[in-house]
């Protein structure tokens, strides 16, 4: 199958840090279909050769094991082309169409690795020159909008040019191998399904924690914040996958229909429940791995009076038969104690204890990063002859060790899926808009609240109020147990 993959924003950070390295890994693994061309478009005046040399220099910053040798890059680089484009000039889109039509590949993938405010104009220009025919797919990088209204505006513009089946809204968390295994865990095994409900589960916790601060992205991040950057997309997508009903098939729309039902069943926020069930924070100076780090307000290009949140913890419920009354806790933040992304399913304790001791009830930990695997925490006897006390033990599965072959990275998987036309791991417009609809009351409540985010020290697990949020229900975060 021949394909043309076009990166709008071909000299941007996303393209050279994430997308090109992911494509190279697909090429190295023999997964990239033969007969492909990769075209980078940007405003810089470059030739194919100069762009390849520029990209080769950028690849030197890629992790050692993933860095191409000179021989590998020469072969991979032969697929790469460059075209100068001013995205405001209609004639440049016609030139792009002529370049693509001259070859007439089986599939054309247009990846908008640009600022979201350009999406509407780019799609309209693509439609004007006819670059929306059946062979074309458009990939939209997050964040898709700043609020519900802007997300709807982008989706209207996309739907005015492309069919929904041609639109691939990307959330790179959905490409992580461990996230893909959520489906296999739940719907490929009989073990957990009878327990996957309110009668057996006490609470579910989703944590997306980073040690890094905002770095040089202060200007962008200050207009975004943790709620928009992580909760509205990544965390909610994970919640839908952990809570959805079994789909009728592995078809993309069957899966996305069930995810949408979860989003529509989330308990809506009011101004009062935001004050009670949502904690926002902002990191101050502290220590990460023994090194002093600045606070958010001291970061480059961050306004000194900023009230942007770098931490969010919230409590919600799903108003349906399976999950009624079960609290779901979502948490994300920068400059936290660990880099950790995981889902913790805490089961209810046994109804009647006959053993002394026992510790915490059973729990299932689904590890997303930096490790990738499953940990089932049980209780057992040591067999030391010191009575019948129970002690915690773990069944720990490391996916990287269990599967000896090279595992496909998130962007690698999603780029290959876009080329192949597989929509399963991409977000549909009604999912995305419903997520914004649920988040928007939090944003509105914060706008009306002059108190701003709570401070927390870099290297901690966030404001103390986040622990109190969970403790109010008689529970605690995983690291506190």
From TrEMBL:
Binding site for NADP(+): 43, 86-87, 142
Reactions catalysed, as given in the entry: D-glucose 6-phosphate + NADP(+) = 6-phospho-D-glucono-1,5-lactone + NADPH + H(+)
Active-site residues, Swiss-Prot/TrEMBL: 234 (proton acceptor)
TM regions (residue ranges): none
Segments forming domain Glucose-6-phosphate dehydrogenase NAD-binding: 6-181
HAMAP family: G6PD
Family to which this protein belongs: Belongs to the glucose-6-phosphate dehydrogenase family.
Protein name stated in the entry: Glucose-6-phosphate 1-dehydrogenase
